[in-house]
Amino acid sequence: MLPVAVDAMGGDNAPNEIIDGAQKAVEDHGIPVLLVGRPEVLEGLTDLPVMPASEVIEMDAEPGSSVRQMKDSSLVRAAEAVRDGKASAMVSAGNTGATMASALLRMGRIKNIARPAIATLLPSPGTTPTVLLDSGANAECNAEWLLQFGQMGSVFAQHRLGIKKPRVALLSIGEEPGKGSPLIKDSFKTFSEAEFNEGSFIGNIEGRDLLTDAADVVVTDGFTGNVALKTIEGTMKTLFSAILEKLTLTKESTAAFETLGPEFDELLQIFHPDTYGGAMLLGVKGVCIISHGSSGSLAIENAIKVAAEMSESGIVDNLQSSFK
Amino acid sequence: MLPVAVDAMGGDNAPNEIIDGAQKAVEDHGIPVLLVGRPEVLEGLTDLPVMPASEVIEMDAEPGSSVRQMKDSSLVRAAEAVRDGKASAMVSAGNTGATMASALLRMGRIKNIARPAIATLLPSPGTTPTVLLDSGANAECNAEWLLQFGQMGSVFAQHRLGIKKPRVALLSIGEEPGKGSPLIKDSFKTFSEAEFNEGSFIGNIEGRDLLTDAADVVVTDGFTGNVALKTIEGTMKTLFSAILEKLTLTKESTAAFETLGPEFDELLQIFHPDTYGGAMLLGVKGVCIISHGSSGSLAIENAIKVAAEMSESGIVDNLQSSFK
Q1: Looking at the 3D structure of chain A, how many domains does it have?
Q2: Is any Cβ of chain A less than 8 angstroms from the Cβ of B39?
Q3: What is the pLDDT of residues A8-52, one digit of tens each?
Q4: CB-based contact, A237 to chain B, within 8 Å
Q5: Are residues A155 and A94 both part of a single domain?
Q6: Are B150 and B107 in the same domain?
Q7: A209 to chain B: closest CA residue
Q8: In angstroms, rounded to a whole number, what is the distance separating the alpha carbons of residues B209 and B213?
Q9: What ipTM was reported for this prediction?
Q10: Which of A204, A210, A239 has the most B C-beta neighbours within 10 Å, making it the best mutation to test the interface with B?
Q11: A133 and A265 fall within a common domain
């Protein structure tokens, strides 16, 4: 089993939380890991194998030029490890744009796919999560790209969630075919006449349906998708903070709230972005898992598990043959 | 004091909840109300004055053609009452598109404003709500329209929330000026050089900042705005349902949860869309308050209060002189 290449230098909590998560993936799940980063930083902190990379692309660096110029960066080296058959997949919590650019430039694009897209899982309590894509790779899209996102998303839902016939929907502002932006109206026609690799197009859904069982795969452009994703994260954060503050105002409520501790922790876990261990960049010739910049060790551990599972599932081969 | 014209036939809970809300506005707040709708339906249910209108535009009817054809509909008559000086403002929980079309066609557009926009309040616990616009009137926009939305939103934040110098932001997918869709990048330049009626442009914010104190007025196109708004509503609904279900699984947790009842109800109220009593259509020559289709009597009562306040505040005159 090839190791998962983990960018040890990327993310707000690098390298310590990244190393901790990697260690757990090795110890608890038996997944081999190759840490990528500065040996002088990493070797004092861990006994895991290290692939040396002398540079670090900062979180706010311009993605394209950084990847072109910083050839010995941890992100570029991680993507090369996948390309060269030294790793089965890559994981990074670093600069999202640079992660995409590294994967795209080093692994290459799958033939006939116009643009890679980021597929994110949204929690939907009591049922399988909803796949949202594109959640941020392409701020401007056309109907043909969205169609490919839908088709890639359908394959992803099959491999990642075990849904045999994914229900694919467009994100719009009304269920009727005539509702939405010009892009969505165009796409509705394109989607209606297309096939989705055993899945099927079920029409438009709205923002309020994202965290429900309304659809398995929700397709949108990367601008709208990223706004929706961050709006969900922000709403949850505000709501959980308000609950914590409000329910611990008095001694009585604090005591009652403490009784509910374990249940509340489970709720937090269902809705916490760390639980799903990151998004997948679909459309490149290799498995690339993009974790939240704020990832802690649990998020990294989960991301490594997902990376290994996706590699073993053969999703990249499957995408390549779907788009042949 | 002129009465507020209330569309008694519009919304999922019409006419009963509409009438109840109107009754409370009259009794508890001393606001005169004129119910608009079918006399044969309304007169058995209430003693409030009724302006007769024989037709009802259904929730899923096509807005433009309905308003043109159904001249004796409750929505068209309510808008005419404002135009003709028989009412100070209109309120409807009916078909949103038809409400906008009625207001636009009967009251008319404010001179020099290209397109009216819907301004919605988003809860931001511990501080003033955030104004989001456009939250659904215009699925496709250009930078000049967005600029006018920002300027109207600034005036609205002053009148509605008492914020003297509103901080105006664009909704994007990164804080840097170069981040976002082509529309947002264009708008960033336009906004940077513009004035906002005592307010100021503070740059881009992201979806996760909507329910925080990051900005007072957040500007976006009606497609993105509506997706964001419904995503917030859906996330809250999913989260509150999950909390209710999870925290009442055992006898112990149910007992603890019941202790927290009053605090939890307050939380629900902070985040419930009914609390703010509806959105305002900015850019027409009259006050038009659009309530959620699912509005209950509290939402209608609050909407009537807001309608009366906005009318008394002189916001329409102020918008007219701002854009002269």
Answers
A1: 2
A2: no
A3: 999 999 999 999 999 999 999 999 999 999 999 999 999 999 999
A4: yes
A5: no
A6: no
A7: B234
A8: 8
A9: 0.94
A10: A239
A11: yes
Q: What is the sign, positive or negative, of the torsion defined by CA atoms of B186, B187, B188, B189?
A: positive
Expressed as residue numbers, the domain containing A148 is 119-274
Regarding whether B294 and B271 lie in a shared domain, the answer is: no
Same domain, residue pair A208 and A307: no
CATH number, residue A238: 3.40.718.10
Does the beta carbon of B251 lie under 8 angstroms from any beta carbon of chain A? Answer: no
What would the pLDDT profile of B245-267 be if each residue is shown by its tens digit? 887 888 887 887 788 888 888 88
Question: Is the predicted pLDDT of residue B27 greater than 80, yes or no?
Answer: yes
Contact partners, residue A21, CB within 8 Å, separation at least 6: A6, A295, A296, A297, A298, A299, A300, A301, A303, A304
Do B182 and B199 share a domain, yes or no?
yes
pTM exceeding 0.90: yes
Q: Do B173 and A222 touch (CB under 8 A)?
A: yes
Is there a contact between B124 and A256 if contact means CB atoms under 8 Å apart? no
| Local structure of residue A82 (DSSP, 8 states) | H
